[in-house]
Amino acid sequence: MTEKTLIDARGSFCPGPLMELIAQLKSAEVGDEFEVLSSDKGSANDIPEWVEKAGHELVESREDKGVWHITVKKKR
Amino acid sequence: MRILIIGGGMGGTILANNLARRLSSEIKAGKVNLTMLSASEKHFYQPGLLYLAVGQMMPDELYREQVSLLEPGIAFHVDPVTEFHLDENQVKTQSDRTYDYDVLVIATGSRVNMEEIPGLAENAEMFYTEEGALKMLKSLREFEGGRVVVCVGVPHKCPMAPLEITFMMHDFFKERGILDKVELYYTYPIGRIHSLENVAKWATPEFDQLGIKYETFFNMKEVDGDNKILRSEEGAEVNYDLLVTIPAHKGMEVVESQGLGKDGWVPIDRLRLNMEGRDNVFAIGDTTNLPISKAGSTAHFEAEALGENIASMVKIGQPVRDYDGKVFCFIEAGKDRATYASFDYLNPPDPKPPTRAVHWFKVAYNQLYWASARGLL
Question: Which end of chain B is less packed: N or C, by CB atoms within 10 Å?
Fold first, then answer.
């Protein structure tokens, strides 16, 4: 079943937004979507980079008042 | 008021002792009942496992009788919880007893989860259990040379462990005189060698200087033990002669099976530490779904904040402070050098160059911990 899960990783220095996303994607179903909230501007680069490498889909990446909203769909 | 703490690890023990002190008069007067349920009569100092794996600590240094660490006034029972009935403010236990509570704290910790990576449990060394650490020590002592691959699952307990075991293996092989026959090959799930950017900035030149190779964006997919190949989700392959893993973790089985949280992590408010939708149920330590380090210091600082708040709720009917996300991690950079990372929700860490002094402080802390668990430090 497709669902969208919020990962609020604002203020997360360790393990950090990308590690949170990786951990949650592992136990998700193909087609599930995750919206990561991150206050770390590095996430705007490293999440899309990993998503491409790992073969998932970057649905959206936008900044709103210092918070990055990055939506990823599990593809495999 | 009946306060029930589930779990006798670092977080549960520090919290229980904190509350027993703050509420000693209320406990003596019979106004507060403080109970701890644990799965073991022993208290286990888990950070010592890293040292066990390289022969720097012995198993008997890692255990104390749990009752010896607890303040008077805490009713302690070895009776693990089997069912949570949060709507009824009750838990049921292995001995078929029912415990009622007004305030519940879940501090059951986490467990190694190697099963989801095919071939990992059969082929990799890991030091997250006493048995595993001793087996790894034997493998390290018998290793005659070749490629040692470090692979990392997420989420895992102790964020510094991947770096620490790599540095410590470097020095272990150097002391054995076989370093020139060993290639250390470190892999990490994200695009740098540690999740904390400043830690990665510090550790990368250290790796370069020591000749430790690394590959990033490497998430374990499977291990082919017959051909000694580790494959990643990203499509990479690496050959190994010795495979060492920092395995992914899950919350405890009872938390997961009772539906308290996905993968056994209890969802909580990051400031008040109460379970989502529940004002009288809290979780601390590894047990939570917070996007912060699963580390002993996290459990310690959460326990202190929660202890203050539960005590103030008893005394004045309201909490007095928020948990600020504080974490403090030592980082061993070999057998005799260390640094540390200290951070919270607002302030990232900035580790300094490693020194012998910090290493010896960590060695001292391995003994001072027992005072820390008692709530004295």
Answer: C
Residue of chain A nearest B200, judged by CA positions: A14
Over 90: is that where the pLDDT of A3 sits? no
Decide if the complex's ipTM is over 0.90.
Answer: no
CA–CA distance, B88 with B110 (Å, rounded to integer): 25
Residue of B195, B263, B346 with shortest CB distance to A16: B195
Per the structure block, which two tokens stand in for B195?
A: 């999740």
Q: Which of residues 42-71 of A touch B (CB under 8 A)?
A: 42, 46, 49-50, 53-55
Domains of chain B: 2-109+252-327 (3.50.50.60), 113-248 (3.50.50.60)
**Where do we find the tokens 């990962």?**
A7
One-letter amino acid identity for B111? R
Angle at B54 between CA B113 and CA B144, to 5 degrees: 100
Residue A16: the pLDDT is 86
Please state the φ and ψ torsions of residue B310, each to the nearest 5 degrees: -65, -40
Q: Is the CB of A14 less than 8 angstroms away from the CB of B219?
A: no
Domains (ranges, CATH) in chain A?
4-73 (3.30.110.40)
- Interface probe with A: pick from B217, B220, B327, most Cβ of A within 10 Å: B217
pLDDT for the residue B196: 86
Say which residue, B216 or A2, is predicted with more confidence: B216
Q: Give the H/E segment covering residue A35.
A: strand A33-38
CA B363 to chain CA mean position, Å: 18
